[in-house]
Design a protein that fits this description.
Largest sheet of chain A: 6 strands, mixed
Helix content of chain A: 25-40%
CATH architecture of the largest domain in chain A: 2-Layer Sandwich
Strand content of chain A: 15-25%
CATH superfamily of the largest domain in chain A: ATPase, nucleotide binding domain
Strand order of the largest sheet of chain A: 12-11-10-13-15-14
Number of helices of chain A: 18
Largest interface: A-B, 47 and 47 residues
CATH topology of the largest domain in chain A: Nucleotidyltransferase, domain 5
Shape of chain A: globular
Number of domains of chain A: 5
Radius of gyration of chain A: 26 Å
Oligomer: homodimer
Number of strands of chain A: 27
């Protein structure tokens, strides 16, 4: 085992740092940091849209970069993200106009002059009032609301009304009003308009990711993730729905534990950014239908029976306190709209963040998670389906599986020797989804794994196999297994084996996604080869090696690799947009109404397609 | 002492029964039942507007009634309320168009075709949906809201969203949606549209009065009253403001006790009408500024210091549960708008219910309570002021004072003998405000009480005084007192005396109202004699003998008695209108903005006018 090392790349203005392998393209590093860059040419260096300033650590400019930039610009660090290889620790500045999903692009549909931050759902206004005196004895509420110069009546919630007289006088009638639409959330002494915080959260079945954003500057101040503790009640959505249905306190338990976990993430974000909890005025959430129901403690049981009916439809705005969050007492919460069935707010967020609805050519969006979401856009129409991949890609149900965190084998390459990359450059503790895909692809390539999914044992192995691979084929519980790391190499002194059971789990997960893609393309009347782009989303999708994903059939092998593009965590990105812009929310609502929800289970071809999709492709290197 | 007896008069459709003395005019009996009849001619039998059907018990028709009704109509019971004397227990039907403040009149300003009940703030709609099936898998929320055919997005609160899936299925997708504006309050199985309940409450400083109304039929189903338990923290508004300010839990205690008391009234109303608490979807409240602040637990301390600034301005809609009421969990609460300073929602309600803003001639509205509210309308303008009468009219601070409930001496007449009327025809327990005024007026007339307010003792009494009066002049604690009932006549074996202290309290209360009227008329540029009408409001105002109120100077002596008209509890009537009609609320908001609030305390003439007003008029029988 040879471990490869990573370099740190820090992005501005978001401030996020990611670790990538030496030689990674800037475009991929940016995607890992949640920044998806414009790339209409498919990363060919032809359009010049994916501009960024690289401070240091990049390989010399390519000929296409010389075409797009003057010598002065190159000297200033201007580069094309699709061309630039990162060789050493770098700092990178990404201008807003290079970002896909940047409001500048998404929102132009609704209003050409709109730019993110012009219409945040929560806004702050500096207000100066004349203090009361003889002849100016208006009620406090009238004094404040008339100073706001609002177009319609401002609503002051009771909780704030109770504090208003003291607040106004402490501030000597000069301070900052915080408004969500026409609802007054707070009146703060002094001028606090320079920042306004929101937390956007991707509520995944397995993983929760929250980002603290300043909606005034657009800056992402901190990001934090942890496992969804609901997993202890069942690792997929169906088992949680059943738990909620069959246990008297089940729904409440599921809700409370996920709220507590996100609330803990909020605490981490606040600590990291030096922000107080009561400075957070907005929470936005994006999750699949089940996750959004459970977050609200809304019984999702009718999602589990034909015809799979959710309760939630359009986006929901409510009080953050109603859900149990400890942020500003008047803070608002927004949940992305649900498309239908299991296709929920995370899919809407993905379509919003990638600008998929505007795609001019047939495009596929795949968000690979415990619930896989698949969207096809063609001819101005959108189809979406959900497919139960299970949590294998997130490390669950795999014997030595783990999430993509420190100690996870996240990359496996055979180039004469077996090389692995471990997150954090430590001794490996387990295997995450991308490493699992890599390993299976390499075993398929070298004949240690049959397309049927059978791991071959000693006598069945092909001839001329390199000894380094042969010696790794071991036996566990009477079945063949492949040793990725020996007991001497691991953190816990136990070898990390890829077992026959692990391969079966991978087949189920891969088959579910692949069958979903096949059926949805069929519904859209498309052949895989007609797809001009495949957008890979999900916290996990970013870390997949495209060729390996194609080798095991997770992605259509017929697509040129350059057309497969990483989009980062689009669920989180969409939730962040919903915190930044009311128009983004309106676009999201429109998307939810516009997309045709396809219930794959009603497709007569579902079972046969799923069975066929479980078989790995014979060979498909492109 | 001779007690007079009362007869029961039951009104339809309200169903309310009141007890009045034999010979009472139907108009006054109706006012006691909260029904204020049209009387543009001032009760002269000239306009024919105050029509009603009297079932039995009335004196024969007067000549003016013969002019207005045919023989058939008279045979059917049609009468004029201003002409008809009630001699025996009666049942009376009052058509809506005879009522002042009937929405038909009030609302025509805003929209000629509007009639009460056309635009209730809470409405019910019978909804039938197709149940979910393959091909019809919309989310529950979408299925319901699209069936509502709403003009804008329907908002489903989280609490209801959680119950929605079960509710829809229990009802087999056919039931009644309850809506407040675009907010869904409930979905009930079956058709419940035949009734929809609201409770309107007059939150008085001393007395709370609640009425259960059916906003579909307009019927008043029950009325209940009790003392405001906040009185134990102080019997006027200022002492309560100080208590709330100076005690850490003071505001919370004041709020909780008044909410508990009103909630208990709601329980009584429900029991009486056979209505469940969760059938009540609306609460409306009308009170003076302080009462409305305390009901909401909003600190009113800046009301007590110059320039007397309230927190509340426009009407407030909020969740009834937020205030702590046990009605339907999604029920809404509405508080009438505040005009300014101490002039609050009860005054707005009074102007709304009496139609005062439309008065064509100079008109005075006086709501006599612990806080007296005075409104003048002239030349299309409205001025309003509040004056601290104190609770003497409601029986507090009077040695044997009590509220106008069973056992109270409510009427005192001297016609050769001293006659008293006791509410409920029982032995007297004490003296209520109307009895206090009567007694003081009779003592003034017969010279037992000097205009200065001094009760005369034996040697100072005028000559030729009837022996029945002379023997009642007794001495208590070295000061003269007047015995209304001897120890043999009372319920508790203690005599009921009118003391010198009681007279001083009456002078303070009367002087406050009288000074307020004088100053407000001055502000409006009017002489008392220019007033074409004086509208007497307040639960108490109904029971005042006009001539006696004029004798003690509580009402301007210069006004012809027929121009003084009883309006009933206009605060409650306004709150009831706000429960019936959104347009009534809009008119209320408009009134609150339109009325000029006059801060009497800033008037340089305030102190001298108040001092002068404490002296009883020398003589003024009209």
């Amino acid at each position: 085992m040879i471990q490869e090392s990573e370099i740190a790349v820090k992005f501005h203005p978001s401030g996020r740092t990611v670790f990538v392998l030496v030689g990674t393209k800037l475009y991929e590093a940016a995607a890992a940091a949640g920044l998806v860059l414009e790339q209409p040419c498919g990363g060919q260096g032809l359009c010049g849209k994916c501009r960024a300033i690289v401070r240091h650590g990049a390989a010399p400019p390519t000929p296409s970069e010389h075409r797009f930039f003057s010598a002065e610009e190159l000297a200033a660090g201007w580069r094309l993200a699709c061309q630039t290889q990162l060789l050493q620790p770098s700092e990178v500045e990404v201008p807003g106009e290079s970002l896909v999903g940047h409001a500048h692009k998404i929102l132009t549909q609704a209003s050409p002059q709109a730019v993110a931050g012009d219409d945040p759902p929560v806004r702050k206004l500096l207000v100066e009032m004349a203090p009361p005196r003889r002849g100016s004895d208006e009620p406090d509420v009238v004094r404040l609301t008339s100073a706001l110069d609002a177009q319609s009546d401002v609503y002051v919630p009771l909780g704030l009304m109770r504090e208003l007289p003291a607040r106004l006088r402490q501030a000597s009638f000069c301070g900052t009003a915080v408004l969500a639409g026409e609802r007054l959330l707070d009146f703060q002494p002094g001028d606090t308009t320079a920042s306004c915080y929101a937390v956007a959260t991707d509520v995944g079945t397995t993983t929760l990711v929250s980002a603290l954003v300043d909606t005034v500057t657009g800056e992402e101040r901190a990001v934090a993730a942890q496992l969804n503790p609901q997993a202890r009640y069942g690792d997929d959505v169906l088992s949680r729905i059943v738990f909620a249905r069959d246990n008297p306190r089940g729904l409440a338990e599921l809700q409370q534990c996920v709220v507590a976990a996100i609330d803990q993430l909020i605490g981490q974000l606040c600590a990291e950014a030096g922000v107080r909890r009561d400075e957070i005025f907005q929470l936005t959430f994006s999750g699949n239908t089940t996750m959004q129901h459970l977050l609200c403690a809304i019984d999702p049981q009718y999602l589990a029976v034909v015809p799979f009916v959710p309760v939630l439809g359009p986006g929901v705005e409510l009080a953050a306190a109603e859900l149990g969050f400890d942020v500003h007492p008047q803070a608002r919460a927004y949940l992305m709209p649900v498309i239908g069935g299991f296709v929920g707010g995370d899919t809407v967020a993905g379509i919003l963040a990638t600008g998929l609805a505007d795609a001019q050519q047939p495009t596929l969006l795949v968000d690979i998670g415990t619930n896989g979401e698949i969207v096809v856009c063609a001819g101005g129409k959108l189809w979406a389906a959900s497919t139960a991949a299970g949590p294998a890609f997130e490390g669950a149900r795999i014997s030595r599986g783990m999430r993509g965190s420190i100690g996870a084998i996240e990359k496996v390459v055979y180039d004469g020797q077996l090389r692995i990359n471990v997150i954090g450059n430590v001794r490996p503790k387990g295997l995450c989804g991308s490493g699992l895909i890599d390993a299976a692809a390499e075993l398929l390539r070298h004949g240690l794994l049959a397309p049927s999914g059978k791991l071959l044992s000693g006598t069945q192995l092909p001839a001329h196999l390199p000894p380094d691979l042969v010696r790794r084929v071991v036996e566990q519980d009477g079945q063949p297994a492949f040793m990725l790391a020996s007991e001497e190499e691991t953190a816990d002194g136990q070898p990390i084996l890829l077992t026959q059971q692990d391969i079966r789990q991978l087949q189920l997960a891969t088959g579910a996604i692949r069958a979903g893609v096949t059926l949805l393309l069929h519904r859209a009347g498309l052949q895989p080869s007609q797809l001009q782009a495949v957008l890979l989303a999900g916290g996990f999708g970013n870390f997949i090696r495209r060729s390996n994903a194609q080798r095991i059939g997770l992605l259509p092998p017929q697509i040129e690799r350059r057309r497969i593009r990483y989009q980062g965590n689009t669920s989180l990105a969409g939730a962040r947009l919903a915190a930044m812009s009311l128009q983004a929310r309106q676009v999201a609502e429109q998307i939810a109404r516009q997309v045709e929800h396809v219930d794959l289970s009603t497709d007569p071809a579902f079972h046969s397609t799923f069975a066929a999709s479980m078989i790995f492709p014979e060979s498909c290197e492109s």
